[in-house]
Amino acid sequence: MGRWVRPEVYPLLGAMGFVTSMVVFQLTRNALLNPECRINKANRKLGILENEDEGEKYAQHNLRKYLRTRQPQVMPSLNRFFSQEDN
What we know:
The chain has 87 residues and is mostly helical. The protein has helices at residues 9-33, 41-44, 52-59, 62-68, 76-83. InterPro entries: B12D (IPR010530).
């Protein structure tokens, strides 16, 4: 008989896959978009860069601009449900 994986393992594998993909995303984003991360030798020789505009663009990305206009609630519908009074 072949070995089998217990069903309890699948949620753990899903969570680990999600976390791994987030780590890969962040590392790729840092390597490709961060102005302080210099991969090639020519950029590393420059030392301190004067790139305030590029750094501001990296820090204020589209997701942060979108979230700035939203209310800081994790589950707005659940909050509304529990905050409404029933008479």
